[in-house]
Structure formats: structure tokens, C-alpha cells
Amino acid sequence: MSADLSGPGLWTTSVGSFPKPDYIKKARGRFARKEIDRGELLELERRATREWVEFQNSIDTDLVVDGEMYRGDMVAYFAEELPGLEIGGLVRSYGNRYYRKPIATGPVGRDHPITVEWWKYAQSLTDKPVKGMLTGPYTICDWSFNEHYGSRRELVLDLAKVIRDEALDLERAGARFIQIDEPAASTRMDELDLVIESMAIVTEPLTAHTITHICYGDFHNAYPKMLDIPVDQIDLEFANSDYSLLEEFTDNPFTKYIGFGVVDVHSHHEETVDEIAEGIRRGLKHIPADRIFVDPDCGLKTRTVEEARTKLSNIKQAVDLVRAEL
Amino acid sequence: MTVTTTVVGSYPKPPDEGRAFALRKTLHKIERGDANLEELRATQDDLVRAAIGEQEAAGIDIVTDGHARWDDILTPFARTITGFEIGGLLRFFDNNVYYRRPVCVGELEWGGPSSVEAFRFAASVATKPVKVVVPGPVTFAHLSVDEHYGDHESFVLAVARVLAQEAFELEAAGARYIQIDEPALLGAPEDLELAGRALGIIADELKGDETEVTLATYFGDAKRLGEAIYELPADVFGFDLVSGPENRVLIDNLPDGKKVQVGLLDARNTKLEDVDTLARDIDALVEQFGSERVLVSPSSGLEFLPREKARAKLERLGEATAQAAGRTRQDPKEVGA
Predict the structure, then answer these.
(1) Which residues contact A188 (CB under 8 A, 6 or more apart)?
(2) pLDDT tens digit string along A97-146?
(3) Which of B71, B88, B91 sits opposite A217 (nearest CB)?
(4) Contact criterion met (CB below 8 Å) for B182 and B138
(5) Mutate to test the interface with B, among A96, A146, A268 (most CBs of B within 10 A)
(6) Chain A to chain B, count of Cβ pairs less than 8 Å apart?
(7) Which of A180, B14, B128, B260 has the most other CB atoms within 10 Å of its CB?
(8) Contact B270 A88 (CB under 8 A)
């Protein structure tokens, strides 16, 4: 791999988002009501980012994330910055949860880097590599309305060029790991080819270690074709299905680096160090240690700060335990 | 005389941009213990009045309560049917929308009405007839986990028996339009014969002539079911022409004596349809089947759209239908893009 992680493997990392501390939630509300300006909000977002990077440093995380303190959600964040996409009205996702679904109203382009300053800031706070974090073109399309393009494919391919340019800017800034999340990739089997085609546009010119995160979805039908997505590493959820995904690897071995999710992000349940260690051992039966990154199932933003810290600490302790057995 | 306009089910819960979101606030208050279920019911009543009012103003002939009290089409039934528990969140077909998966943990029994009270309220505030939506037994089974029956057929038929009781109660309460939603059948053509038996159990509880039963499909085409779909015991067959353009072939072969509910408006994208194009589509359907046998609707429930867009779409459907009828509506609504 082009990155230079040393050691026996089982590197620790995170999928992306962390919970926002209360002062960020309050500040975002005040900013929306125009009670504070962007500069004040930014100062607090930098503070929260610093606290999360320092926490990851304190537990010796191998591959650090910035925690996305400055993002509302992973699609709207990009939609706000990209010409051609507008933030639309509220739609419900479940229960009493609603989100603003973006609308493609014109040709999608990019007139400035979006994530590079945040990446540089986070990287300045740690000696460990920080992941560049992008949302993939297929997922941005799937989670948006389309009023401009004649087909989903046209929108996805234009978005792919935009995300490629952002990834190239991250690489120029020094990022050696770039994650392009495609949680929607397992939604429609008949569009997996489009996921592959668009990801090829993004990763083709990159030399960084590339990762994509895919949510559970229709995994049984998406695997092993999913391995054709042109990235070095695929990050998957294992804990929330009690590691049943591993059964798929018996007939069709997993051929890439893996992001191995070992704690459920939608549960208050605090997985013990032993539980997590056992999960890692199960993974090692299918994939060698030096191909495994250990992390939570998904972004931790729906947990409390304390729950997230405990889950991450327990992952680190479990990894230390299993590394000693290698 | 022109075609009948209707909706498929849900209507957006958020208010227009900039207006207070009463339902969300009340639910947050309930979470904190600062509101009771009476307040929630009053908020939902207001939302039902608004949803029905907007449908009627747009010219919709057969309305629904917009599922204003429901989180998804299964949970309200799974809650009242004995033998079901409510499970975790799962993606609802190919939408970025989630439902709670019912878990069948014991013998299913009717545990009292799930939707009758909501129907009575809706009917009391509507000037147009109100259609009620009941999840189809095959779809119910596919979207649930069965930890009790152990075989799919027994599970589907058990669900059908409790839903038949619900349908009976709805009819007794005055419901004349009952829509049974079977979107999962599109991906499970092997269940077609079973669906026929399951729907038969429900249809047998209804008196027949007085009540119009619609079998609604959406989110795709029914080509894998083929014309055998028309053997299912329903009066009206609903198809999504947006996500399933190939449904056109099935519609062309609509058997005599059956009606078709054609999903012309894209209920999952904000782009507004052109009124003239819609009117021409409606003209063609009238030409083909006569106005008596055609209902036009959005492609699915409208909850995938922001409120303003859903309303604007219904207004366009209303205008197009009026245009197709060769008359101008007396109070044409200004429809903003």
C-alpha cells in the first residue's frame, strides 16, 4: 500500500463522524437563528475537532479522523458547497427524524475545495495520518432529488468528477488515506455497475490508499461483486449482524483491505473488550491481520460523547489484546 | 365526466417552509414527558384536516388522511395485532426512508381495530370520500421477521386473517374505498398465487358491491407478475408508471370489468410535471378505457417530497384532469415552480 503504516496490522481507525458536544449543537442553533456569526461557530468547531483528535491521540489511534464537527449530514454538507445542488425542503427519514434533501437544479460543478482546510487543521494536531473524508457520487445522487439531469447516471458521473477533483486536492495537501463513502451502494443491485463506474472516475488518478464505507443493505446480493469497486479498502459493518457477513467470505474470499466494524453504532449497549476481541478473532479466520483496520460499524454521531469515547477505548484495548496473540 | 383523481396514501408531515412544525415539537415534548397523548392526537387531527383540505382544494376526488398518525404502513397494525412485536429500523424498499420491522413472536390474533378510529375522524372532516390503506399480507410478511410460524405460507395467511377482520370493521364503519398495498409482490412473483388466496380471505369479509377494493403496487413494474395479476380479487389495480414504465403493457391489457389506478406523477422527485402533458396522458387513458374505469394518482405515497412540492404536484394533477375534461376550473390555483 502506498501509505506507510507499520506494525503487525489490526490498525485502529473510525468510520468518520463523532458526536457533537453540546456546545456545538447549541452554537449551530444560534448560528441558524443568526445570533452568532460564522467566525464564532467556526472557532467552536475547531475546538471540538481539536478535542476529538486529542482523544484519538490519547488512545494511540493509528488512522485518525477529524470527526466531522462542521457537517450537518454527509450529503447536505457537500450539496451546500457545490454549484448545481441546492438544499431542499424537509422530508422524513423515520419516526420523528427529518432531513433537508438536496435538489440537483443545474449542472453540478465545483468552484473551490470543500474539505481541504479541515483536513489540514486536523493533520496539524497529530503525528498520525488523518483520513480525507468524502461522500461518494452515487450516494449524493441517491439521497438527492434530480430536476436537471435526464438520468441518474448523468448526475452520478458529473458528481464523480467533482469528488475526484476534491480528492486530488486532498492528496496535494498531503492526505495519504482518502475515504469515499457510498452507504447507498448496496441499495439497488441493478445500479452496482454505476457505483463501480463512478468510483473508477474518482480513484483512477489517486495514489493515496482509497477506502469506501458501505452500509449493510442487501449485502448478500451485493457480494462478491462489491469487490469490483475500484478502491484499496472496503469498510463494512459486522457487529450489528453478529458477524454474519463473514459467512459470505468462506466461498468468496475478501480480496481487499477491510475496515472491520466491531461495535454497533445504533445501540447504547457497551460492547466489552472481550466481546470486541472475540469479534476480531472471528475476522482473523478470514482475513490476515495486516489487511485489517478495526473500527466502529459506522459513524458514531448518534451516540453520546461518552458512549463514543468508551466504544473507541474498548476497541483499542481489544486490538492490543489480540495483537499480543499474533 | 372525467377520470377520478386519487392519492396512493401518505402526505408530507412537515409544514410549508418557515411555518412552525407542530407535530415534531409535540413528539419531542412527549419524549421529554412534557406532553400527553391527547396533545399528540390534537396535533395529528390538525394535520389530517390540513392534508385532506389540501387534497380537496387540489381537486382530488378520493382522499386519504395522509397517514398523518403513522410512521410507516406496518407499525400501526403490528402494534394492535396480538403476536407482533416492533423491531429495528430497516430501509423501506429503495428509499432513503426507514420503517420499523415487525417481529412475529406468537400466534397472530386480531387485537382490536388499528385504523378504524382514524378513518372515522378523516371521514368526519372530509367532504370527499376517504380511502383507507391496509398493508397487503404478502408485503407485511416480506417486511417482517417470522419467529413463530416457520413457513412463509402459514405466516402470510395468518396475517391475511387478522387483516380481514380489520377490513370488515372498516367497512362496517362506513369505508367504501379500501386499498391494499402490495409493493413487495413486484419482487416476489412466486408469491402471486399465495397473494390471491390471502387477498381472497380479506375480500370474503367484505360485502362486495358496496366497497371498492384497490390492489396497489408501486416502486417498480409488475411485468414479472404478468396479466395473472388481474386474477387477484380486486376491483381496481394500481400501477406506478414512473418507477415502472413497463407497466404500460399491463395497463393496455386491463380486463373488462376492472378499473386501473395509474400513477402518473413522480411521488419521489421534486421536478413538477407539465400540466399539458399530464392532460394528454389522461385523454389517452379515457380514449382507451372510458373515464369510468380510470383513476389517476401520484406514483406512490407523497411523503417522500417536501410539503410544497407534494401539494403543487396534486394541483397539477387536478388541473390536468380538469383540462382533459374540456372545462376550465373555476378557481385555478397559482402553481409556483
Answers:
(1) B94
(2) 999 999 999 999 999 999 999 999 999 999 999 999 999 999 999 999 99
(3) B91
(4) yes
(5) A96
(6) 61
(7) A180
(8) yes
